[in-house]
Amino acid sequence: MPSAPLFDVRVTHDYYADQRCGDFAIVPAAATESAMARLRLTCKSFADRIRIYAELDAKGDVVAAAAAPLSLQFALQPRGSSYAAITRLSDIAQQPAPLFTNEGVQLADPLPLRLTTRRATARESLVVSAPAAAETFVLSGTPLNGTVPADVTVAGAGAVTSVRPGSKRITIDTSALARGTVFQVSYPVRAATPRGALAEIALTLDAQALKPMPAPRGFVVPLSSADARWAYYVVTDFSGDLSTLTVVDATAGNGPRAITVSDAGRAELTTATVGADPVGADLLGRARGRRVVRLVSDAAIPTRDTPLGALELRLDNAPLLSRLPNPPPDRLVLLQTGAPSSRQMVRYQVLSLLTN
């Protein structure tokens, strides 16, 4: 039977200049694989995406369209660990069971999927022991943090008066029941993410979404670059004044600069001033009489695969080195960057500036 490409699911990442991200595999869940086989849908994997093909009937219609609305589930599986150094994971980490979905997203092509959390519900039976307006029970499951009485459904007893997720305790009005009465409760719990997956992907497809288009529709898992302040350590044998040494974005025009380094971000390191800077201490130990200057950016900068290209090391506004390399994503050091209690991870690069 003939088939037609229906849609793509791809991962984009602004770390890469072309946005194409091959750091993840998109893997159908077992139930989705079974449903796709039954509905004559096939999945082909590429470096940065999957493409779903639909078998057509004799009239040229998609066989699977008769099953609309159709739900498909996938796992976003890292192909290695390198993604962790380049990806902003804070938003994903805030979700108990991270899920990218098209539900609640205005129709578009391509359509960026919305990050939310997959919901799961635990159900169990409880037995009245000491009827009271607020009888306490210990649940076998653990309610999600933030669960409130309104999130709990009770069948066969009174209202929930309190929930304490940490101790798994719940109080329920059982004053109208006899001892030994069995009733049921349902409450939200943490959903299990597939083993090894960073997140899940859930697509709900109506009949319109299951019709072939001139080009396949696109669903996008949008990932953003991790950002951090940058530090350049300059090892030099220059004996003159280094008080104006800095890193400058020399891009032409008056647009915003990718990096700025103020006087507060410049420090000549010595055994007396290096403090708890392990990179600076190591360079001083190997410098053999040379000087070490640390230049820290004023603000966080997103990681990028492509060098910024116009970064220059300058002294008295005269270029000394051009086309400075970006700090590698996984080259990190914990530095004090402000108040004594302010320590943060900084990406760094080491530069050599030798006159002899």
Class based on secondary structure composition and strand pairing: mainly beta
Q: Summarize the amount of helix as a percent range.
A: under 10%
Average pLDDT metric: 94
Distance between the termini: 74 Å
Number of strands: 25
The main sheet comes to: 6 strands, mixed
Radius of gyration, CA atoms, in whole angstroms: 29 Å
List the uncertain runs. Answer: none
Shape: flat
Tally the helices: 4
The fraction of residues in strands falls at 35-45%
Number of domains in the coordinates? 3
SSE order, as H and E?
EEHEEEHHEEEEEEEEEEEEEEHEEEEEE
Describe this structure in words.
- It is a single chain.
- The chain is mainly beta.
- The protein folds into 3 domains: about 5-120 and about 195-225, no CATH class; about 120-190, no CATH class; about 225-355, no CATH class.
- About 5% of the residues lie in helices and about 40% in strands.
- The protein has helices at about 30-40, 85, 90-95, 280-285, and strands at about 5-15, 25-30, 40-45, 50-55, 70-80, 100, 110, 115, 120-125, 135-140, 155, 160-165, 170, 180-190, 200-205, 215-225, 225-235, 245-250, 265-270, 290-295, 300, 310-315, 320, 330-335, 345-355.
- Strands 17, 19, 20, 21, 24 and 25 form a 6-stranded mixed sheet that branches. The protein has a 5-stranded mixed sheet with strand order 3-4-1-16-7. A 5-stranded mixed sheet has the order 2-5-15-6-8.
- The radius of gyration is 29 Å and the shape is flat.
- The mean pLDDT is about 95.
